[in-house]
């Protein structure tokens, strides 16, 4: 693996010329930072608009030429201001005119909303003195909109041999026919991960406006501790349970090649951030609990039937009902004569009555009960498997706050424990568990 660092900068990191200057200082402070992946400019202040949001407005007003031009002018002015304040000799207006002309001929949503990254990469490349490489040339999509991973990696590797330093816009790529395709919102994280894997990077940096991840949601816990290191598995568990971390797909390409990810803060570049690893390099990692996350608004469908365990195909029939109604299940706790489905309220919207009726008709259970208003809390930590008394400390903390536990689930890997509680107890439960482990320093 080469000594190459790929650095992705988010929208807040490139919102205006002052942020561009910070990015330049960061990039030039380490010669290993050779390939840079920018997002479109984000908000400069609370009531500001992101460039990508303005581009969506442009798409929605294509049929109203006057409105389109008015909105696009705001975008042009933003880039002109950045270029002027950075004293760049760059005719950014010519690129904007080219985009406008293309839009009138091609009304593709993906093309329009990806132009924020495209323009920002052109500006950043000019400012850094790096080569601009259009993502449409190296991020390859199939005609059905799926990523052509192998071809993408091949082109990125060839790019790394051709250029020592380059800026590649995030969020989009193109088919072999040149049709622009985008990833989902937040997809610049994925772009950065693809570039890191393709150029055989030794590190993928994700620069944003926070100094890494926190052990709990700061809206629930006052001043939660910062997470120094986390594994890909722990990250996945926390992300799935609602923690605001990385774009979910961003981990895949670098995880495959065991490339570490470091989350850094553009506004506090001296902060170490959070390092995401395939496994901890040091056995001295101090904490048992890495983080706590969770979500509210789940419903439990509890089904009981005598001798359920002897009825072949019962669970298959039950899950077929769920699948036929296009519903995803979070957890399936079960006993000898009972099984429960824990499903998010969003998944059950306008479907609950139909599902219950089908269960009664097709499975003939002794009883079907519905229990709404449940929250799920995940306590995640790779160190739990080697530490005794974790469950005892966890449930003691909940008991002391008089919080009733409605469900418990722990996977065989023992990397997490899922607790079901009442919606109204969620915040109290997160605080209780967080402080129980922090005060014990385990």
UniProtKB/TrEMBL annotation:
<dbReference type="GO" id="GO:0005829">
    <property type="term" value="C:cytosol"/>
</dbReference>
<feature type="binding site">
    <location>
        <begin position="208"/>
        <end position="209"/>
    </location>
    <ligand>
        <name>ATP</name>
    </ligand>
</feature>
<dbReference type="GO" id="GO:0009088">
    <property type="term" value="P:threonine biosynthetic process"/>
</dbReference>
<dbReference type="GO" id="GO:0009090">
    <property type="term" value="P:homoserine biosynthetic process"/>
</dbReference>
<feature type="domain" description="ACT">
    <location>
        <begin position="379"/>
        <end position="442"/>
    </location>
</feature>
<keyword id="KW-0418">Kinase</keyword>
<comment type="pathway">
    <text>Amino-acid biosynthesis; L-methionine biosynthesis via de novo pathway; L-homoserine from L-aspartate: step 1/3.</text>
</comment>
<feature type="binding site">
    <location>
        <position position="219"/>
    </location>
    <ligand>
        <name>ATP</name>
    </ligand>
</feature>
<keyword id="KW-0457">Lysine biosynthesis</keyword>
<dbReference type="InterPro" id="IPR045865">
    <property type="entry name" value="ACT-like_dom_sf"/>
</dbReference>
<dbReference type="InterPro" id="IPR001341">
    <property type="entry name" value="Asp_kinase"/>
</dbReference>
<feature type="binding site">
    <location>
        <position position="117"/>
    </location>
    <ligand>
        <name>substrate</name>
    </ligand>
</feature>
<dbReference type="InterPro" id="IPR036393">
    <property type="entry name" value="AceGlu_kinase-like_sf"/>
</dbReference>
<dbReference type="GO" id="GO:0005524">
    <property type="term" value="F:ATP binding"/>
</dbReference>
<feature type="domain" description="ACT">
    <location>
        <begin position="303"/>
        <end position="373"/>
    </location>
</feature>
<protein>
    <recommendedName>
        <fullName>Aspartokinase</fullName>
        <ecNumber>2.7.2.4</ecNumber>
    </recommendedName>
</protein>
<keyword id="KW-0220">Diaminopimelate biosynthesis</keyword>
<feature type="binding site">
    <location>
        <position position="52"/>
    </location>
    <ligand>
        <name>substrate</name>
    </ligand>
</feature>
<dbReference type="InterPro" id="IPR001048">
    <property type="entry name" value="Asp/Glu/Uridylate_kinase"/>
</dbReference>
<dbReference type="Pfam" id="PF00696">
    <property type="entry name" value="AA_kinase"/>
</dbReference>
<comment type="pathway">
    <text>Amino-acid biosynthesis; L-lysine biosynthesis via DAP pathway; (S)-tetrahydrodipicolinate from L-aspartate: step 1/4.</text>
</comment>
<dbReference type="GO" id="GO:0004072">
    <property type="term" value="F:aspartate kinase activity"/>
</dbReference>
<dbReference type="InterPro" id="IPR054352">
    <property type="entry name" value="ACT_Aspartokinase"/>
</dbReference>
<dbReference type="InterPro" id="IPR018042">
    <property type="entry name" value="Aspartate_kinase_CS"/>
</dbReference>
<dbReference type="InterPro" id="IPR002912">
    <property type="entry name" value="ACT_dom"/>
</dbReference>
<comment type="similarity">
    <text>Belongs to the aspartokinase family.</text>
</comment>
<dbReference type="Pfam" id="PF22468">
    <property type="entry name" value="ACT_9"/>
</dbReference>
<feature type="binding site">
    <location>
        <begin position="8"/>
        <end position="11"/>
    </location>
    <ligand>
        <name>ATP</name>
    </ligand>
</feature>
<comment type="function">
    <text>Catalyzes the phosphorylation of the beta-carboxyl group of aspartic acid with ATP to yield 4-phospho-L-aspartate, which is involved in the branched biosynthetic pathway leading to the biosynthesis of amino acids threonine, isoleucine and methionine.</text>
</comment>
<dbReference type="GO" id="GO:0009089">
    <property type="term" value="P:lysine biosynthetic process via diaminopimelate"/>
</dbReference>
<keyword id="KW-0028">Amino-acid biosynthesis</keyword>
<keyword id="KW-0547">Nucleotide-binding</keyword>
<keyword id="KW-0808">Transferase</keyword>
<dbReference type="InterPro" id="IPR005260">
    <property type="entry name" value="Asp_kin_monofn"/>
</dbReference>
<dbReference type="GO" id="GO:0019877">
    <property type="term" value="P:diaminopimelate biosynthetic process"/>
</dbReference>
<keyword id="KW-0067">ATP-binding</keyword>
